[in-house]
What we know:
Blueprint: H1 17-27, H2 29-50, E1 55-78, E2 82-111, H3 112-179, H4 185-220, H5 244-254, H6 256-274, E3 282-298, E4 301-317, H7 325-392, H8 397-431, H9 437-447
Amino acid sequence: MTIVMAGAPLAARATDLLDVWHAASVHDPDVAIAQSAREAGEARRAQASALWRPTVTLSGNVARTSANTSTAGANFSAPAFGQSNGVAFNTSINDGNASGWTLEARQPLISRERQAQSQQLDISADAADLEWQSSRQDLMLHTVQRYFDVILAQRKLDLLTRQHSAVERAWAQAKDRFAIGDAPVTDTYEASARAESLRAQVLAADNELQLARTALSDATGLVSPSLQMLSPGGSAVPGALPPLAHWLALAADSNPQLRLQLAKAQAAREETVKLSAAASAKLDLVAQAGEQRLRGSGDFGPASNTTRQAMIGVQLTVPLYTGGYRSARQAEALHLEDKALAEVDRTRQQISQQTRAAWLGLQAGSARISALTESLKASQSRLDATQLGRQVGDRTTLDLLNAESDASNAELALLQARVDLLLNQLRLQALAGQLDEARLEAVNTLLQR
């Protein structure tokens, strides 16, 4: 599939909806933002696993140190020296060299706080994936909306231009007929006023089209593409529309925004658990080895001291008092949890209302298109009859101008109704968490019929 990118020559064929989506999916900045956020979420999942793995720490020190040790009243015994009481030992090092190292390995065994933190990281990773899904669906909807904005703006400009040309012809005919005394001067004034009004509308419609094209180009990188227009025939939603209860159940279960709010509520709950008193204690398996050395000269001559130690065991840590900081943070977490639960309820209501609105829009869409199709036929028949009546003198120039305006408005209204029907279909699928490229391809097929 050929995609026309910025700076590339235009494709020979018209750019369809899938072409526009593929271009937006690699060009729109929101894609890069969502993808980076998703990858960051996957990194949090790795962090959650790492919390329960052992950690190994090596530390060392070098310093200049002075040390004095004095011991009196000691008991001393050694082979060949017998036993002595009241012995004194004195050592002294002035400005000596001290060095040491410590190697420690720590394996968490029990920690409710660490468990809550691990679950929060997993929830955060799931939330990042949900945000990516929601962002992708939003981008699809925005891309389709921009695509149809260009089509509608182009069609509106075409209709107004065509109508302006017809009014210009009617104006010229009114002036000619007035010149020979076959029509009143009011016909000339009415045609002139309508022509100037339409000229202003054409300029406004052209500005609207330029803005719509710029928005599409910014999002996709496509430079003034020749878009696939809607076919003259109308097409409704493919297949029978499932009942509203079906879509409400799907939205309640699969809507990415609702699932994201539920994930945030779960994370808030884990934060409350993490700060509880029961979660403050932790038990670790600890292994440690180290050595400390001190060498130098002192009051009694050269001296040195070397201490080595190694240990393995379990370490229990229980915070007894934190100055009220932990309890204050838990109170904050409890209120934030209540806030998150309230946001879940609000989001659930909003999703339900939006799903109902999109479903009702689809229900009424087909009937609306049928009515507007008949309205267009009637408007065109009225225009044909008015043109004939104008030629034989049964209709005025104002009647003809009004008939042309009504026919153009009916054609534009029908096109808008078809676009609304397709957009409501995609919105309903997005609310149910089912909007994907396959759905866009189905809509693209409808456009080409």
